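Lab notebook: predicted structure, single chain.

Context: the supervisor wants predicted structures on file for every construct in the current expression panel, including those that have not yet been purified. This is the next one on the list. No modifications to the sequence; it matches the entry in the shared construct table.
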Amino acid sequence: MSLSEPSPRIVLRNVLIVVGVLVALYVAYLLRRPLGWIVVATFVAIALSGPVNWLQERRVRRGVAILITYVGVLMIPVAIGSIVVPPVVRGGNDLAESAPQYARDVQDFIARNRTLRTLETDYGLGSQLEAEARKLPSRLGGAAGTLRDLGIGLVNSIFTGVTILILSVFMLAGGRGWIRRAVALQPPQRAAMIDRTVDRMAVAVRNYVAGALAQATVAGVTTWIVLVILGVPFAAPLAVIVFFFDLVPLVGATIAAVVVAIVTLFVNFPTATIVWVIWAIIYQQVENSVIQPMIQRRAVNTHPFVVLVAVLFGSTLFGVPGALLAIPVAASLQIVLLEWWRHRREQRMPLEQPPPPMAPPPRPAEG
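Prediction complete. Output recorded below exactly as produced.
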């Protein structure tokens, strides 16, 4: 056998490695949904570790602190529902009850217009519109099928959310202990590097989440104030929409501004629309140049190019959740690379240090 030819053992080992990697990738693809839940639960646990640690510093037991934190988290959708649902239900009922009057107004307008009056004579357009409008209140019950489909999707979303919260509870309760036990198996220098990396990642994720929530809160509150001044209906639900869209990096605030602008088209047009568009443009400039840097300056120190690429990749692979997690994931990867590079340099430093200078020879004694 030539020395350049690999032995059958090496060939078999390489083949097994390739097959093992392919099998692992295929298994990860099959488990992509629960793996995604675990990733989201990890970030939720890291984000909620801040208020849990704050409560612990005030002599609250960790279990009680976790319970208080998650009760507060579960109250958030309840509060949002109390803000959004009642105005929407009232608006839908008002629309159904006022639809016949709207149809009569349209019929009167048709009667005053010669062209439309001709269409009314030929096709009975206004009469058909009024007849359909009168049927609208009775057809509200026919929406049960659509609501049933929406309910199934809502139940699935609730199941996913509850699963993620339960996973995050276990991670928050024992995750740090798991990391300590895993780090203890490493050499001291590498263990210090891993521990430092985990701490920096946790701080970056907590700061980013807190900053994003603060920024979205400012956007939602200012939106509510402007819409109330303009007299736009559903000001509170629209402010909630702006809050959630503002959490999406780069494009979320613009999408929310367009949604609100469409609503203003039906309220005091064009004054309300013009005022809102001007306000949205000015506010986004202020948010991008003042509010966001001020809030996020201590969160993540990531280059804007990396942020853009991360958001594009995350949104393409995982949709809106991927866009939301893209920046903290990019910041965490950046911290891992920097700490790894620092660890490598610390390992090389003893080898690269020059030898100590030789002491000068002793001077001969005088005399």
